[in-house]
């Protein structure tokens, strides 16, 4: 009897295995079929011929036609990697896109992600040296690779994807590639772009050919509001429920919002309304997608919408062209986007919510017509569309701080910045300001040449300002010996997803009592977590995101490796006379280290409240953000207002807020660390 049972079990097992194999076979077959259905497939041989014939090729095609996922596979299939001798790089402006596309392509090629197909984004690399032949990466990562491999010699083909986004890194790469291509005639360059702007790229690369992949697109009905909307979030939510309750259930909704916070708040509001309506309406599945969405949640957006349910995707403009979500029939477009804007005269970067360009809103509308006829609800007027919107978005290079870029170019020996081949030249005032900033940081000498410190800063996978903090924390006579602490804080600042479960204030209310700054709060959280042996329950107890902390640890390891490699760790250890340093000494050194890295991120208390200390007379009035420990200390615990405060972020929204703040209890520290900036400010009053 026993035997029979076990053989029955065996049979069951075999059957299961067979079903699994069959479903796997079907899956592969389906993937193969869906690959052949994509618009680019019909042009495969023409495309490959065009690539063979020209060193540079611009590829233009409707979003979703298969440029990103298919073209690189064609290159692999046609032997461009020469049996693994070379790799193929595909750049993306956004981290999430690089990861998600690499995942999809590894699936299509039926390999494990991180083997033949991998991705590389800052602080997270999933590749196998010697094995990876197709690498999706952020444009910023490829730019960093130029530092160690100026001719990008390990690649036979480079595809600059989403070039129309015109990120700073993409623009600089294009300039560098122009020279690299002269050195390496066998290198193939593909530039893919949404429909706009293709001609400009072609002209830039000596009138290289433009290949058009005609896409299929169904008609999209466009609706405008009759009056401008006062509150576009409410208007958008109303529209969602109108669609949901009046239109047939088949057809998902895509709503474009401006950022993570807005997306999370809107999600909450929609869910609240939906739960009130309960079973009176069909279920809604709300899936957010933004650049810093944690990896574990990314797969959700591509999940097939369950029966009797409608999916609502809340997306930033990442869903405009870089990611294609199937099944969208309705697009709701408030017409706004968040954009960095740098003001050279004050040296400040503002993150502003501004109206989208015409090109953007047209792209967005197109998302509704991929699977069938669709509808787009624009939450602005037809008049505004026709008369007020800019034609194109402004490229990042003309509206951003260029310190990183200038430092990178100088370390690549590009001495004549004004004659570097920029697709659009940056403003001279921005370049000058960058040189000035780099000089203040000690990255350049008074002749504008890069210093040893400057070269060191380039080695760090973080902004030069943070690199300077770490450098001072390890080596400065008045600050050295606090490298470990600064590494923890800097790593916490680099993790862009929220560390807290729920809001920061609630999560930290019990820790905050005797802490004087956000920097020390982050330090304490990190150190307590380390003491708990990186424990998950500790995170739960303290309302801290465990996965986020794991990423922070990973970032810290990488920054630490860099410090060891550059010898900073050894110098830091030589301050061991201070090993027993008290809390106050530690805080003073840490504060000084941050001053040396961010001497321009300082606000001063005046009769009219806090003001920035820009060179121009009368700084900008700012308010300390309510999420800051300092806000709580001052407003809620009645502690005295600090005269000087260093901030990590300035947000210009309804009010000018400074975020992540560190008080500077002693003016002398400012002059001690950065006399060239502060001698005037302090003596002023
Ligand atoms: P393009 O780059 O031309 O915009 P893509 O190559 O990104 O087009 O997308 C081609 C198709 O692949 C899309 O229509 C979509 O159906 C599918 N696809 C892409 N990424 C994923 C993913 N992560 N999961 C599921 N399907 C995907
Ligand atoms: Mg694409």
From TrEMBL:
Catalytic activity, reaction form: ATP + H2O = ADP + phosphate + H(+)
Acidic residues bias: start-end ranges: 1-12
Gene Ontology molecular function, alphabetical: ATP binding; hydrolase activity; RNA binding; RNA helicase activity
Keyword Lipid metabolism assigned: no
Transmembrane segments: none
All residue ranges annotated as the Helicase ATP-binding domain in the record: 48-214
Cellular component GO terms, alphabetical: catalytic step 2 spliceosome; U2-type catalytic step 1 spliceosome
Stretches assigned to the Helicase C-terminal domain: 239-413
Gene Ontology biological process terms in this record: mRNA splicing, via spliceosome; protein-RNA complex organization; ribonucleoprotein complex biogenesis
Domain of life the protein comes from: Eukaryota
Record key words, sorted: ATP-binding, Hydrolase, mRNA processing, mRNA splicing, Nucleotide-binding, Nucleus
EC number in record: 3.6.4.13
Primary subcellular site in the record, as a coarse category: nucleus
Enzyme class: hydrolase
Subcellular location per the Swiss-Prot or TrEMBL entry: Nucleus
Protein name in UniProt: RNA helicase
Organism: Maudiozyma barnettii
Part of the intact protein present: 233 to 917 of 917
